[in-house]
Amino acid sequence: MKVGSIAVVGMFSLALVAGGCAGGEDRARMEQASQQETVSLQGRVTELGKQVEAAQGERDQLKAQLEAATEANGKLQAEVAKLRGESEAAQAKAKQAEGELGKAQAALAAARKSQDEVEQMAVKLKAAEDGVAAARAKSAESERAANSAVEAANRAKEQAAQLAMEKASLQKKLDALTAAAEKKGGATGAADENK
Fold it and tell me: Is the separation of the CB atoms in 118 and 109 below 8 Å?
């Protein structure tokens, strides 16, 4: 409204200067033109005010959207960081499971002297390898599979040791039987000579 008033005063002053001391009719026309210009300017000012209000409302809406997007972005970044940490932890567990599998494979190589146990161990080792492959997708399962493979390797070692002990025991019995047979054979020979 101030802009309109200033414009009206300015236009009116210009009209007076331009018209000089014109007659009353000219003044009336100028005043009418000035009033029309004033109404027109007031309409423009009102329209500009509405446009400013609309722009401010749109600005506030965009500002709110930006704040919401910034907050959502922060949450997404936190989620990404969390998932990255979980992924790194899963990879570390998978590497650990691979190390356990390597130990199980070494134990299997040491137990290969006994054919039956080796075949059973190969089946168990295959199950452990399958478990490690699954561990790359899910680290908890791979850890269990690796532990199972280590236990199987330990059982194979125990079985191999037990077989070795049984072999030694059988060898002792065989040696004892051989010695007894030799004594018996020696005693029979001596009896024949006495006759």
Answer: no
